[in-house]
Design brief:
about 375 residues, alpha/beta, Rossmann fold, 2 domains, seven-stranded parallel beta sheet
């Protein structure tokens, strides 16, 4: 029989990595699928057929998202037309919650008008526990099955009739190097303190956070001349990061000041090697916590998100690692609550105690069978195991 056709929609690098793990899970289950849609390098390396550029769907901040609505609507209509023509056996949207939910609702209406239906699955629950709990009701109108990464998310959606499977998080399953091994890999002196600069993988995050991080690093260097820093860069922002580092440090690549630029693929090694982190709010807080890296979280949302945040955001849950553990693993600083000097002040005590680690998330985020295979099982059931 013909392999089931699976349309996958991904809008950013983190989703691309999750999509690749799902594809590996399907392969591990010997469930051949024709996977196509919108995906990035990780998925395409596994044979995924991307019909549009993933970066076209990446937006950051409420204000930017509003401006992008006409363009995203056009892209969504083109994809929905393609789906209606090809009629895949299932549709999987991954993260990119704002666009994904609107896309799914619009697709459901088109399918209903055509008298045809394919199950719509979504991976990575919208963060209703941190922002806008009322949105959980809308998920039931958008998708047929929700795959949650974290066990604490399930009740937010099942109470509204959403079918949920907790699939765990692939990051919790990866083996992680020790500090000495990681420093050897990076070629960094094991006896010098090391600061991780983690400004995020989106251009707006980098533009609003990295300058302060770099200036904080300079302040710390005056206190700790032996200090080094390491900055992992996502490929989509690498050129901008390099230019910014050169402009602000005045040292070209920054290496002469002890600043090491690394590709995003080295993130696990960077987190294991570092003594403290300046961390952007987002999924990287989870990665940092899994590695046991101490530090603090910083974020500057756009103006509209600030206004809405004052009304809807549950601050204690904004930092993902804190929400999972139900305690403050990382202090959160927003907007004008931080400056280069205050960032340096927060990091200094951690850097003078090298090798100190925080409590990690341990087995909290793992499920029997693993993320990839558990996610694949949901898809297999949805496509009735066609092969």
């Amino acid at each position: 029989m013909t392999a089931p056709s699976l349309f996958i929609m991904v809008g950013e690098a983190s989703g691309d990595r999750l999509g690749a793990e799902v594809m590996k899970g399907l392969a591990a289950r010997n469930a051949a699928c024709d996977c196509w849609g919108v995906g990035g390098d990780a998925m395409q390396s596994l044979g995924f057929g991307s019909v549009m550029a993933m970066d076209d769907f990446t937006v950051l901040g409420v204000g930017e998202a509003i401006k992008a609505i006409p363009r995203l609507n056009r892209l969504a209509n083109t994809l929905i037309d393609r789906i209606m023509e090809t009629r895949p056996d299932a549709i999987l949207t991954i993260d990119n919650k704002g666009f994904s939910m609107r896309f799914a609702r619009r697709l459901k209406k088109r399918m209903a008008r055509a008298g045809w239906h394919a199950p719509i699955l979504h991976l990575v629950a919208p963060t209703v526990w941190a922002w806008g709990g009322w949105r959980a009701r809308g998920v039931a109108k958008s998708v047929d099955h929700l795959m949650c990464l974290f066990p604490f998310e399930e009740p937010y959606f099942t109470r509204h009739g959403v079918e949920v499977t907790v699939v765990g998080h692939p990051s919790a399953e990866r083996p992680r190097p020790g500090r000495d091994e990681a420093r050897g890999t990076l070629g960094i002196d094991p006896d010098r303190p090391l600061l991780a600069l983690l400004p995020g993988s989106r251009s707006r995050e980098v533009a609003t956070l990295l300058p302060d991080m770099l200036r904080a690093f300079s302040i710390l260097k005056a206190e700790l001349p032996s200090l080094q820093a390491v900055l992992p860069m996502a490929s989509n922002v690498a050129s901008g990061v390099t230019a910014m580092v050169g402009r602000i440090t005045g040292e070209g690549s920054g290496h002469d000041q002890g600043l090491h630029l690394r590709p995003q693929d080295d993130l696990d090694v960077v987190l294991a090697a570092s003594d403290a982190g300046m961390i952007c709010s987002g999924t990287v807080t989870l990665e940092a916590a899994l590695a046991g890296l101490p530090g603090a979280v910083y974020y500057r949302p756009d103006w509209l998100a600030r206004k809405l945040g004052n009304i809807f955001v549950e601050r204690s849950n904004v930092v993902l690692a804190n929400a999972i553990m139900g305690e403050e693993i990382y202090p959160l600083y927003l907007n004008d609550e931080f400056s280069p000097q205050s960032m340096a002040d927060a990091a200094l005590p951690l850097l003078t105690r090298p090798g100190t680690r925080i409590t990690t998330l341990g087995d909290t985020l793992t499920v029997k069978g693993g993320f990839g295979r558990t996610s694949a099982d949901v898809i297999i059931r949805s496509t009735k195991g066609k092969s």
